[in-house]
Amino acid sequence: MPDTGSKMKSNRKVPWTRSFGFRTAGAFTVLFLVVGAAAAALTARELRRQHLEQSRQALLRESRVLLLVFTPEVLRAGPEARIQELAEQAGADSPYRVSVFDAQGHLLGDSRGRPSGGTERGASALRPEILQALQGRPVSGIASGNASRENAIFAAVPVLHEGQPSGGILVSVPANRLLPISARSLGVIGISYVLSALLFAAVSLWIGARISRRIFQMSAAAARYARGDLEEKVWVDGRDEIQRLGNSLNKMAAALKSRGGESEAEKVKLTGILNSMSEGVIAVNAGLQAILVNPSAESMFGAAPGSAAGKSLVALTKKPQLDALVSRAVASGGSFAQDIEILQTGGTRFLHACATGFSESAGGAAGILVLSDVTRIRKLENLRREFVANVSHELKTPLTSIRGFIETLLGGALEDASARERFLKLMQDDAGRLERLIGDLLEISRLEDKQISLQMQRLDLAREADYAAAHLQPQMQEKNIRIENRIPQDPPIFVTADRDKIRQVLLNLLDNAIKFNVPGGWITLQAAERGPEAVISVEDGGPGIPAHAVARVFERFYRVDKARSRDVGGTGLGLSIVKHIVEVHGGSVGCESGPGRGARFWFSLPIAGVQNQIRS
Q1: What is residue 426's three-state secondary structure?
Q2: Neighbour count for residue 515 (Cβ, 10 Å)
Q3: Mean of the per-residue pLDDT values of the chain
Q4: What confidence score (pLDDT) does residue 419 get?
Q5: Rounded alpha-carbon distances, angstroms, from residue 567 to 310, 389, 433, 434, 481
Q6: What is the arithmetic mean of pLDDT over 70-80?
Q7: Looking at residues 506-513, what average pLDDT do you find?
Q8: Sign of the C-alpha dihedral, residues 273, 276, 280, 284?
Q9: Is the pLDDT of residue 122 over 70?
Q10: Which of 158, 241, 303, 556 is the most exposed place for a label (fewest CB within 10 A)?
Q11: Quick check: 131 and 143 in contact, CB under 8 A?
């Protein structure tokens, strides 16, 4: 039985946050954020470096331009007030601070004004840089501030006179003046980074959702295929690996459908074969539980249709020897056979059981039991043995009698005329009995083999009954038996049959009624139409037949009273011949009797004019 829980779980849609698309988009987004943040940081750092470098170069250019203003002559001529004025003019329309020093590093002028407290204080923050410039080489960079001064970007160049420094010019700008420019650049980078991240996340989610939707379509299709629904195909757009996977699923479904159809056809064929088999078939698993039982096997053991599967073998068959037989076959992987008997309401049933074990489990089956009903074969064997015994006995009795008479005659009775005549008459009777027996055997053999040719014609039952009664009139007079023919003559009942065979039937039944009747008894012939058939009966007032013998009176050589039958000279084949003749005409026979109430034998024949299936 399929697991419905797992089926429901497989069909339930995965939460969006746990979907493949969301997780893939999330992973790529996080990766983008990390890589983007690193790239943004490196970009910001590089922009700041480039900005500082551009500012330094600009300060160097500015300081070199100021060399045209603050020449060695201006520095030597003074006065300091003039130099201060020039410095203030140089820095008036510029964000830069311009400071002018003499050869000893004393501040001569400053665009921000001379600081109170002397020149040394004004130059103290930049003294190391000025000292480098006063050594005759330009210098630029970032000067670190102290508690009273902030960081600054500077450029210092020497004022040379005949190759010797006569002073220096320092151009600087506070570093915080450049921060707004850097902040704007960083802001642009940050906004671009955030927008890019959002756009990337949105695109990733869209792509992930599209991938998830396509994967879910294939997952749902795979679940349908697992349930056996192979009709609906997967439709996946695109020309990528997922689309190829969808096409592969469709091809797989088509192949499964084709193979499933073949498998279903084979299953139907196998089921039809098993259901039509007269042999019983039981397949068992390793635990000897029935997993397949065909109708014939169910009928053999009286199980309701469809109720046997799942039962243990011993519970189904009620036969421990069958359980042991199959267990042995399953354990060894071989085949074993055994004959068993089953007692049923209708009598004993004989079965031939053949159990085969599988070395490897085939579809869950570990062994199979095939049961053949050999009841009819056993009965035929018994009948054959009885027939041989009866024929041997029937032939032996008159032959023994004839041999005895011959020996008696040869022993001296041949000279006695009266004894010779009596013995010869007895030998003649026994020879006639042998002749009748052999004739009846040949007749019944021809009837069983359908080797007779029927001359079908329209017969009047009343006239045929009169013929048979007239033919046996001497026997009836000998026992003073009266016969009454009650078969209707106006209107008559006509049947379609072979005249000679029907007369033989009537003669055998009447002869049987005369032989086993009491002296002074009676016999009644009757007939009536029953639908498409006419039923003819011969009833007598004899001693009757015991109930247990009624069903067997039509068997070959069966005698209710064997001693009496031999006394009246019967062969034991007359009623069997009656049965076979009536059956080849498409009719049936029967007997109704009981001890002390006579016997009624009846047979049916097709009414003339009614279409029948008998072939002459």
Answers
A1: helix
A2: 18
A3: 79
A4: 78
A5: 61, 20, 12, 15, 19
A6: 82
A7: 91
A8: positive
A9: no
A10: 241
A11: no
Q: Which residues contact 91 (CB under 8 A, 6 or more apart)?
A: 97, 98, 111, 112
Of 516, 527, 498, 511, nearest to 468 (Cα)? Answer: 511
User: Confidence band (pLDDT; 50, 70, 90) for 503?
Assistant: very high
Query: What is the dihedral sign for C-alpha 118, 119, 122, 124?
Result: negative
Question: How far is it, in rounded angstroms, from Cα 506 to Cα 499?
Answer: 11
Q: Which residues contact 540 (CB under 8 A, 6 or more apart)?
A: 513, 516, 517, 521, 522, 523, 524, 598, 599, 600
What are phi and psi for residue 66, nearest 5 degrees? -70, -15
Reported as half-sphere exposure (CB side, CA atoms, 13 A), residue 135 has a value of 8
> What pLDDT is stored for residue 59 in this prediction?
83
Using one digit for the tens of pLDDT, what is the confidence trace for 454-469? 889 999 999 999 999 9
CA distance 486 to 536: 10
Residue 510 burial (C-beta neighbours within 10 Å; 0-12, 13-18, 19+): buried
CA atoms of 341 and 335, how far apart (whole Å) = 20
Q: What is the pLDDT of residue 120?
A: 42
Contacts of 318 (CB under 8 A, 6+ apart): 301
Q: What is the mean pLDDT of residues 166-189?
A: 75
What would the two tokens of residue 159 be?
């004022």
Q: Which two tokens stand for residue 374?
A: 């050999």
- The residues near 162 (Cβ < 8 Å, ≥ 6 apart) are none
- Whether residue 508 is predicted with pLDDT greater than 80 in this model: the reply is yes
Three-class secondary structure assignment of 76-145: HHCCHHHHHHHHHHHCCCCCCEEEEEECCCCEEEECCCCCCCCHHHHHHHHHHHHHHHHCCCCEEEEECC
Tokens 């001064």 sit on residue: 149
Q: Using the structure block, give the residue that is written with the tokens 């699923």.
A: 249
Instruction: Compute how many other C-beta atoms are within 10 angstroms of the C-beta atom of residue 208.
Output: 22
Question: Residue 7 has what pLDDT?
Answer: 44
Tokens of 51: 């900005």
Does the pLDDT of residue 452 top 80, yes or no?
no
pLDDT over 90 (residue 437): no
Do residues 336 and 329 make contact, with C-beta atoms less than 8 angstroms apart? Answer: yes
Cβ–Cβ under 8 Å, residues 496 and 612: yes
Extract the tokens encoding 577: 């011949």
Between CA 391 and CA 410 the distance in angstroms is 28
Per-residue exposure over 448-471, b if at least 16 CB sit within 10 Å of its own CB, e if not: eeeeeebebeebebbebbbebbee
Chain segment 198-238, per-residue pLDDT in tens? 887 788 778 777 777 777 777 777 777 777 777 777 766 66
Q: At what angle do helices 20-66 and 179-227 cross, to 10 degrees?
A: 160
H or E element, residue 605: strand 599-606
DSSP state of 414: G
